[in-house]
Amino acid sequence: MDPITHVVVGIGLATLSNTPLTVSNPLFWAASLGSVAPDLDVVYRTRGEISYLYQHRGASHSLLGLISLPAIIAFLLQIFYPHTGFQTLYFWAMAGTASHIMLDFFNPHGVQLLWPIKKTRYHQSLLNGFDPILILVLLLSICGYTYGMTQPLLFVGCLIVYMLFRWVMSKTVHRFLIRQFAGDGPKRYIILPSIFSLWSWDFLIDNNDTITAGEVRIPSGKMQIITVLKKSHEKIVKIALANQIGKMFGDFTPYFHVSPKKKESNEIYLEFIDLRYRIKNTFLHSAVAVFNENAELKKAFFYPFSKKREIKIAG
To answer: How far is CA 66 from CA 113, 114, 150, 243, in A?
Structure first.
């Protein structure tokens, strides 16, 4: 999620302290700082775009980060607010940090909750990167609290109701797809929030031979098939998936497609496509791996966000 949403949720949670919403209130500072602290992993950008994309939402978004980051925040805030107990500051900083990890859990990129034990990204794809409706509802509840018109629990209630609303939308799309594609053999349905539209949901239908990518609009129920990707069962694909590039891309995204693109001068070009994020007919992240006739990886390139941004990662 975007930083604005994280801060708004952090401030909203701090209203549960039933203390004045002012810039001098250490509890609001603790919750606000906690709500943005996990994104300090932005420092990985100093090592390059690849490092950041793979490390983002790792250690700082884990249970270990949930325990350690609030302690650092509470320690620093006690320097400026010595009369506020460490435990109190720690509690509200942890509330903010927990809200950040929770919101990112509801995004397709997910969070590595069990880092460093497991680097699996856990997620429940319900929210876009930015959700203006969520922001508006939460800001209204915070304003109501500030002017004494609403109770603090209204904020939590609005957050829970909206998340349930998104969950119902996702399940509605899932049931719709099952009806539309019933009888076509075993398959897996993956529902993802659209990047830009709050009322559109992307979907992937994965079976033995193809991955179908499309979009369903709520509440009209209009469906559009964007592309049908054929799965390659060639030996070189299996080798690539077990290779460095395959493992790297598999750690980056749980939903991807790989297929041979071309053969040139005894070299085989394989394309990896991250299927989570799409703008119109184009998926944002991709990679290309080049193998020789002996199935040895010669070079590989990663394309974050656009084919125009080429980053060499092997060779």
So the answer is: 9, 11, 30, 33
Rounded to 5°, the CA angle 73-48-4 comes to 45
Element at 215 (helix H, strand E): strand 210-217
**For 115-127, what is each residue's pLDDT tens digit?**
999 989 999 999 9
Angle at 306 between CA 300 and CA 308, to 5 degrees: 75
Residue 81 phi/psi, 5-degree rounding, is: -130, 70
pLDDT, average across residues 288-311 = 92
Rounded to whole angstroms, the Cα distance separating 226 from 223 reads 10
pLDDT digits (tens, 9 = 90+) for 48-72: 877 887 788 999 999 999 999 999 9
Phi, psi of 114, deg, nearest 5: -100, 15
The DSSP symbol for 44 reads G
DSSP 3-state assignment of 286? strand
3-class SS at 300? strand
**3 state DSSP class of 309:** coil
